[in-house]
Automatic annotation (TrEMBL):
Keywords: Membrane, Transmembrane, Transmembrane helix. It comes from the Eukaryota. One of its GO terms (cellular component) is membrane. It is a multi-pass membrane protein. This is Sugar phosphate transporter domain-containing protein. The chain crosses the membrane at residues 17-35, 41-61, 73-93, 105-127, 139-160, 172-190. Pfam families: TPT. Residues 2-185 form the Sugar phosphate transporter domain. It is found in: Membrane. The keyword Transmembrane helix applies.
Length: 215
C-alpha cells in the first residue's frame, strides 16, 4: 500500500528488488492468514483500514518533509496539536473520562501507576520522533518495512513462549516468507544506498535506478 501511494503521490518508482521483497512480505502475510482458524472479518477489516491510514500518513509525512516548510520537529508539533480535539472527542464518546474518574475514586492511583503512565508518554514521543526521522532519512516505504525486521526476534520468541500463538504449518511458513522478504528489502535498499554513497565520494552521480530504489 505504501509503495503504491509513493508512486501516486510522490512519483517514486521502486526498483525490481524492492518490488519482489515487498511482494514476498505480502505473500507471506496472505499465506499465514488464509487458513487462520481465528479469522474475524471485523478484526481484519480494522487492520486493513489501519494499514491504509498508516501508509497514507507515512507518504504525506515524507511529502511534507521534502517541502522543507515545517521541518521534522515542526511536523511532530503540529501533528500532535491538530489531534488534541479528535482525541478528546473519541475519549468522550468511549466514556474514557468517566472510567478515569472511577479509577481515581477507587484509590487505584499509586506512584507506580503515575510513573508507568509518564514513561508511556515519553515512549510515545520517542516512537513518533523515530518514525519521522526514519522517514526523513530513508523513505516512507522503508519506515513501513522495518516493522517485520524489528519484530523478528519477538515473533520467534513469542512462538515458543506464549500460549496465544496457535501453531499451523501455513501460518509458520507464511511468517517466515514475510520475514525473508523484509530481510531482502533491507539488503536491497541499503546495498543501493552504500553504492550511491561510494559513487558520490568518487565524484560520480548514482544511476537513476539506484536513486529511485532508495525512496
Amino acid at each position: 500500500m505504501t509503495m503504491v501511494l509513493e508512486y501516486i503521490i510522490l512519483g517514486v518508482k521502486a526498483s525490481r528488488a524492492v518490488k519482489i521483497s515487498v511482494g514476498l512480505m505480502i505473500l507471506g502475510s496472505v499465506i499465514a492468514a488464509v487458513f487462520d482458524l481465528t479469522f474475524d472479518i471485523w478484526g481484519y477489516s480494522m487492520v486493513l483500514i489501519n494499514d491504509i491510514c498508516t501508509a497514507a500518513n507515512s507518504v504525506y509525512v515524507k511529502q511534507k518533509l521534502n517541502a522543507k516548510k515545517l521541518g521534522k520537529y515542526g511536523l511532530l508539533y503540529y501533528n500532535a496539536l491538530f489531534m488534541i480535539f479528535p482525541v478528546i472527542i473519541l475519549a468522550w464518546i468511549n466514556e474514557e473520562f468517566e472510567k478515569v474518574h472511577q479509577y481515581i475514586i477507587a484509590g487505584n492511583i499509586t506512584i507506580w501507576v503515575v510513573a508507568c503512565l509518564s514513561f508511556s508518554f515519553v515512549c510515545g514521543f520517542f516512537l513518533n520522533c523515530s518514525i519521522v526521522l526514519c522517514t526523513h532519512y530513508n523513505s516512507a516505504l522503508t519506515t513501513s518495512c522495518v516493522g517485520p525486521v524489528k519484530n523478528l526476534l519477538v515473533t520467534y520468541v513469542g512462538m515458543f513462549s506464549s500460549d496465544d500463538y496457535l501453531f499451523g504449518w501455513n501460518n509458520f511458513i507464511g511468517i517466515n516468507i514475510s520475514i525473508i522478504g523484509s530481510l531482502l528489502y533491507t539488503y536491497a535498499t541499503f546495498r543501493t544506498e552504500k553504492k550511491g554513497a561510494e559513487e558520490k565520494s568518487a565524484g560520480t552521480l548514482p544511476k537513476t535506478d539506484d536513486r529511485q530504489s532508495l525512496l
